[in-house]
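Supplementary Methods. Inverse-folding protocol.

Structures were first reduced to a discrete structure-token string of length 126. This string, shown here, constituted the complete conditioning input.
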């Protein structure tokens, strides 16, 4: 049985482009940012991924998997698709966080499975 910690992330934007927000969930604890500036939905997904990785690192986690529902961001971060335009600086910021170590495990999950999306909705409702 694996002790790997699941770290969920999700970003949003209303309207698109517009006010960005994101959330991440680590070990059942939700963290939300409802005022992440102005940008696109893609920008907000990158910010969520970066925040989730920083959160995992701040907790000293070594065995974790980043889980998100943005195929585009996950594919760019994993090097499966070419990163272009506004995503280039986000990819650089993401990679800088593990420059001295191995790339973290990063996987796609369905939107309905993304606990960070649920946390983001709850944070908005407050």
């Amino acid at each position: 049985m694996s002790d790997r910690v699941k770290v969920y992330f999700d970003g949003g934007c209303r309207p698109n482009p517009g006010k960005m927000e994101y959330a991440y969930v680590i070990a059942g604890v939700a963290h939300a940012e409802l005022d992440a500036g102005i940008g696109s939905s893609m920008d907000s997904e990158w910010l969520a991924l970066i925040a989730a990785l920083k959160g995992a690192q701040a907790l000293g986690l070594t065995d974790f998997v980043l889980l998100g529902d943005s195929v585009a961001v996950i594919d760019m971060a994993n090097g499966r698709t070419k990163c272009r335009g506004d995503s280039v600086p986000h990819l650089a910021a993401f990679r800088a966080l593990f420059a001295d170590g191995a790339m973290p495990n990063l996987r796609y999950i369905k939107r309905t499975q993304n606990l960070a999306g649920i946390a983001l909705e709850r944070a908005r409702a407050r």
